[in-house]
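sanity check this:
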Amino acid sequence: MTMTDGGAGTSARVAARVRDLTKTYGKGDAMVRALDGVSLDLVAGEFTAIMGPSGSGKSTLMHCCAALDTATSGEVFLGDRELGRLKDKELTRLRRDEIGFVFQSFNLVPTLSAEENIVLPQSIARRKPDREWFDTVIETVGIRDRLSHRPNQLSGGQQQRVAIARALVGRPAIVFADEPTGNLDSQSGAEVLDLLRRSAADHGQTIVMVTHDPVAASYTDRVVFLADGRIVDELRRPDREGVLEVMARMSAPLAADAER
């Protein structure tokens, strides 16, 4: 199944494109096909969720799109650049300058303040952040009164807000979020998801989130479902019930196989 325009029409600008992507591990009888011919467009300014059962290939797909892993075959484009054609230094620069990351485990430097963590990528690149945009991001994530605090002085939700600010402050072309609410309570998780949604809606940020949570997926503009390394369905303007319905439909063949 091929998804090419994200359901948003041919006039929508595409932030990233995946074409016939395959990723295998091992050889012979032990070979595992993590991705099996995936084609997908990620529309600029949209919040997209990637869902699927464990082993469906969702994390592998995100890692290939984010230049953290290399596909066995197929193509990944960020804008007009095909990642497979870039040299190591170019990939490093691309990950630093044009891709933002938000992880389940926050990945903050414990000895740095919140503000120092936020501007760390710019500091490494020896660039000063755009102060006007920095202020906009800080207001959006709501942590101005916590900028001098270190991670151990912040709640989990506040740490994830810092991580999101770090991902946004460099104005990347695309932000990848890997289970960003996995270590948060339900209230903090809802606040983080609302923040990601507003980052897309209000600031035109392109966000791709891997999640297993139907509630988290309901905050997005679009949900793409993977099974056995293939795209099997998608929803636009999803709600929790619609996501659960697709997931139940996907799990029905697995349940039937288990009964045999």
Remarks:
- Residues 44-62+96-259 form a domain with the Rossmann fold fold (CATH 3.40.50.300).
